[in-house]
Design goal:
18 strands, Rossmann fold, 19 helices, 15% strand, 6-stranded parallel β-sheet, 487 residues, elongated, 6-stranded mixed β-sheet, alpha/beta
Length: 487
């Protein structure tokens, strides 16, 4: 038991060195790849070195102002992190050099191993696994193969030149897919989700999902963890670590390979073994994680958990702009198991004093277009929000911010949007209840995109549809109920 604990401790210390390196070496980058890795590392705050022996590639590397060496062993610095992009048959030699150099961790971008189900691929993967695990000092941390490795936004350590760099984030992401890992960081950024650290780990021949979960669970910079997962080598350990992590930080898991054909596909992708859906769903419920079915749902759930205040009640106070939308928003939230109750008598008494009932309703949802007014009356919107905040029958609040409603009024008074944002932002600051906004695309995609962006600037989570907002909020509430022992 002590031996296993020591190994885990060494792994976590090694991962800290890998996620926070001072020096990085890229082995095998080339012009045909657009010098993908060296360009991605252009924002890295530490030192970057290249290893390349092809004389035709060296001039291009020198143009990038990156010092090049013919071997890792020739680099004068200690190397914390290596990205290996050589053909698979060359990878054992690079792994051997990493071991001799005392490298902290190596990412094998190289693919063509066990996922190909070829004899050569399987043998090469086993060879590099044995080399890494038998290395002195507790072994070499090998990420992959068949992966994109590590992204640290704050340090500018990237695996795509498109990824933001230079500022800190608070959301970690663990992925067996490089594409999903990159897309989460890029699409998530447009939704106000800033990654702290992410890792794409591919075939997981040495380090598996549980190792990265343990690391991010202890990482002070990471407040929430998202994951794209296909299968674990040690399912029992993975579920145990997942359960322990969800008790201290929200974890959102997007499971790949839930269908029979998908299960076959994940083996071809990362040589992972699928878990039966019934077993998986039961384990996720016991662990208390948030489940998602795709990238959009993952981002929406993370957004709700990051921006909404924790809440454990299912009763919604809803604000819509028109009568038709009030019906649709009610259906969407009720469909997700959230309740839309009548308000208290005290709330209706307050509403009756100013609510414009011509063409509107104040039952719940509040059909508020007339009350907010053609010229937009922020004082009336503030009253609506205050009433829902004080109502004991309401646990959380959702409001439609209609692009059409605003676009028409902004033509006459461009300051209307700022007034709305000021009102919503002030409400969010003083409110104890979760609050989300819905800004539909409809026929005004540019306007709704702009509105969602402006809402995010005020730390108000916007969603593109009633369904998306309801689903994300329900998932966030379920998580906080789990944390509070209510389910």
């Amino acid at each position: 038991m002590a031996r296993a604990t020591d190994i885990r401790s060494n792994v976590q210390q090694g991962l800290d060195r890998a996620f926070n390196p001072r020096t990085v070496a890229v082995v095998g980058d080339k012009r045909a790849m657009g010098y993908l890795w060296l360009r991605s590392m252009s924002t890295f705050q530490g030192k970057v070195y290249s290893v390349q022996i092809d004389p035709n590639e060296i001039p291009g590397i020198e143009e990038l102002d990156v010092p090049n060496y013919s071997s890792l062993l020739e680099i004068p610095d200690e190397i914390d992190y290596v990205v290996c992009a050589v053909p698979r048959q060359v990878s054992p030699r690079v792994v051997a050099d990493c071991i001799e150099k005392g490298v902290g961790a190596v990412t094998l971008f190289t693919s063509g191993f066990a996922e190909t189900e070829t004899e050569e691929g399987v043998q090469l993967q086993e060879q590099i696994r044995e080399m890494a695990q038998s290395a002195p000092g507790g072994g070499l941390l090998l990420i992959g193969p068949n992966c994109m490795g590590i992204y640290n936004r704050r340090l500018g350590l990237r695996h795509s030149w498109e990824q933001p760099a230079g500022d800190a984030g608070n959301v970690g992401f663990i992925s067996q897919s490089g594409t999903h890992c990159i897309n989460f960081s890029l699409v998530g950024d447009r939704h106000g989700i800033r990654c702290s650290k992410t890792v794409s780990f591919g075939n997981a021949v040495v380090l598996d999902a549980a190792d990265y979960l343990e690391y991010l669970a202890a990482d002070a910079e990471t407040e929430l963890i998202g994951m794209y997962f296909e299968g674990a080598k040690d399912s029992r350990r993975f579920f145990r670590v997942l359960r322990e992590t969800a008790r201290v930080k929200p974890v959102v898991v997007w499971k790949g390979g839930v269908s029979a054909a998908g299960a076959r596909a994940i083996y071809s992708h990362t040589a992972a073994l699928a878990t039966a859906p019934a077993v998986w769903n039961a384990a996720m419920r016991q662990a208390g994680v948030v489940q998602a079915d795709n990238l959009d749902e993952t981002i929406d759930a993370v957004k709700a958990l990051v921006y909404c205040k924790p809440g454990t009640g299912y009763r919604m106070g809803l604000i819509a702009m028109t009568g038709g939308q009030s019906v649709v928003i009610t259906d969407a939230f009720e469909r997700e198991g959230l309740e839309v109750p009548l308000l208290t008598a005290a709330s209706y008494e307050k509403l009756s004093q100013f609510f414009n009932i011509i063409g509107g309703s104040y039952r719940n949802p509040l059909d508020s277009g007339g009350t907010i007014g053609m010229g937009f009356l922020p004082q009336n919107l503030q009253k609506l929000l205050e009433i829902l905040e004080e109502d004991g029958s309401v646990d959380a609040i959702a409001m439609e911010v209609g692009a059409g409603f605003l676009a028409r009024r902004m033509r006459e008074n461009p300051a209307i949007l700022d007034a709305l944002l000021d009102t919503l932002s002030a409400h969010r600051e003083r409110s104890r209840k979760p609050f989300i906004a819905i800004a539909h695309a409809g026929h005004l995609e540019d306007v709704s995109t702009m509105i969602r962006s402006r809402l995010l600037e005020r730390n108000i989570p916007p969603f593109a549809s009633f369904q998306a907002g309801a689903k994300a909020l329900r998932r966030a509430i379920d998580y906080w109920r789990f944390r509070d022992g209510l389910d």
